[in-house]
Amino acid sequence: MPTLRLRLLVLGALSLVLVLLLAAAGGYLQARTALYEVQAHNLETLATRLAADVDDRVRTRQVLLEQGAANLQLAPQQFERQGSALITRLRYLKGMFNSVLLYDLRGNVIADYPALPGRLGLNVAGQDYFRTTRDSLRPQVSEPVRLRGGLNRTVIVFTAPVFSTEGQLAGVLGASLELYSPEFFGELKNIAIGQGGFLTVHAMRSRLTILHADAGAIMQVAATSDPLLQRALAGRSGYAAVGDSRGVPVLQVYRRLRNVPWLLGVVLPLHEVTQPASLLGRQHLLLVLSALLLLLPLLWWGVRRLLRPLGRLQNQLTVLRRDPHVEVAPLGCRELQRIGHDVAAAFRGRADCEQQLAAREALFSSLGEVSPMGVLVVDAQARLQYLNPAGMRIIGLPAVQAGDRLGRHWLDDIHPDSLPQVAGQWQQLLANGRGFELLCRLRHSDGCLVMAELHFSELAGSGGERRFLGLLSDVSAREEARGKLRAEHERTQLVLGTIGDAVVLANRVDEVEYVNPPALALFGVPASDMLGRLLGVFMNLVSPETGLAVPLRDIERNAAGKPLALDLLSRDMRVQPVLLTLSVMHGHGPLQGCKVVVLRPDGARLHREQPRREASYDVLTGLRNRRGFLTALGEVLDDNRVHYQPHVLAIIDLDYFKAVNDSAGHQGGDLLLQDVARIMQRQVRSGDIIARLGGDEFAILLCHCEQEVAERMLHELLQLIDAHVVYLGERTFRISASIGVTMIQLQDERAQPVLSRADDSCHQAKQRGRNCLVLHAGAL
Question: Which InterPro entries match (predicted)?
Fold first, then answer.
């Protein structure tokens, strides 16, 4: 299609065909849907009427048989003796049934009408219809049964119980009916439903097909491939279009009978449902083709007339190419007039861009000439396209030789030591377009070392050719100063490392920046765990007199520069007497506000206080003993009466500890107690007090702690103890804990009442099934 006119004609014709086809398809689909719904409604109505008719036939026979059984009223012995006489009274049932039978309580046929040789004495006790009638004392309709002996007949048996005057079951009255007799299913088989439709009847209990257009399907189990039939057999009715046993799409409707567990279905081939819509669709298609043939000449004339202004637009473009600033002549329509103005604006814009580009090129050259940084522009092949005088000075060449460097590979000026790193970054820039910056060595004309900072990025808007901009800065003096600073820092660290005291340097926000080897040994942690973290995480200081925490902020505010005798609480809860001196750097500069902490082990005080410490601490776990805990609790109570702060006391009693002690011995029990002590030490805060009161009983004093925070911490402690597994040889042991909690009140003066409240709560936790926490009611 070389011309626009032909393209528009084809496009218009295709659009017209598409619109007409869509309209026809929409009408066809709407008509098909309407036909489907109407036909489905008709089939539902037909199925309902036929199901009601079959129900009436079944119910009429059931009522007639029940009335006949109600008229007998004989005792079981009389019923068996008078069977022949009784059957003559029931001959009138022959008009509704094929045969009438009397059964005794054992299921034996004692009389039949009309008489059939070999039937008297036949036992049917194993048949479902007899057994169900006898057990439920209610009338029944049997499943369809195909008679033996080559008779090719299918019957159903109606049964009704016969009672004596005292209400005792005397026997069973039965009647058989051939399904396909003219008075029952014979008429249904002859009902015509369209051209290929038919009726089906299925037994819901046995899922046998009773009536079907396909004779081979009768008395066969219904196919499981029909989902609608399976839903209907399960008790849900409805209609749907599915494939039959041969794969032909059909519309099916099912209705359940009320008086007998059968399912009646109406089946109609789907092509008969949609046949009128198919005829209508063919008529619409012929109408579309006729309309297209009539409208094509009109469309051709309209396209030619609409495209006349394009010739004038072509002439206008020729004029604009010579003079972009000429006025655009009228072109005949607003759309083409706008196109003409837009094209003229584009020509003018291109001319303006060319002028601006020339000005920017001149500005870039000027900036490059006066810039103190080296500027280089390279192409994708790493060839130099521009290098300013500053760049020439950095590599030690006069500016007049810049023209000789153009076209050369820019990596030739990189020192061999830095060449692999720079070349790798350059390849990544070519691959992903992301810029890079790094320090590298450059070749210098006089052989001296030049350290340069190199920045490279891709120039945007460079057209089809990729170009890259590089910036060079001579940082040799800066790197030399940094080297001297690093050497000075190493000397300082060497001097601090030889000092015997522990030295820690922290910045103004208490983050550790330096720690010498004696300090690492004192804290018992590697340097990687301390650097960059808060000093308070590792340095937990307590007063040797009160045992309460001493914050660094208080030392900085009240005792900066003075040696203080304190106890250092390590992460494994060991208490180490130390002499601490805290100094704060003043003045101006980067070290302003930094803190220097010097710690010296206080051996004399350790030796002096050793007896007192042994009397207050448990030898096995390293925790406080009962005496030490009561002392600390008394100090907290004294302080609490002066200035109330929330404190929480918890008594922890281990569950099932005696079983571990009996099984693993005292050595295993001691190991378990040490494990529990370590779990508690890790869970609580550094200022909290932990004690082993005796045996497997522990206590925790959470100082300055709100009730909600304490409950959360103690619940987590319960989970940690419950999850802990102790390995003793080849055996494993697990325990849990019961915790009683109380809040210290403002009126508490002595330690014993507080301990009693927590101990009572602990006993309640034991009684509630262990491994739980109980808060004393007075703390609510």
Answer: Biofilm_reg_signaling, GGDEF_dom, Nucleotide_cyclase, PAS, PAS-assoc_C, PAS-like_dom_sf, PAS_4, Rev_trsase/Diguanyl_cyclase
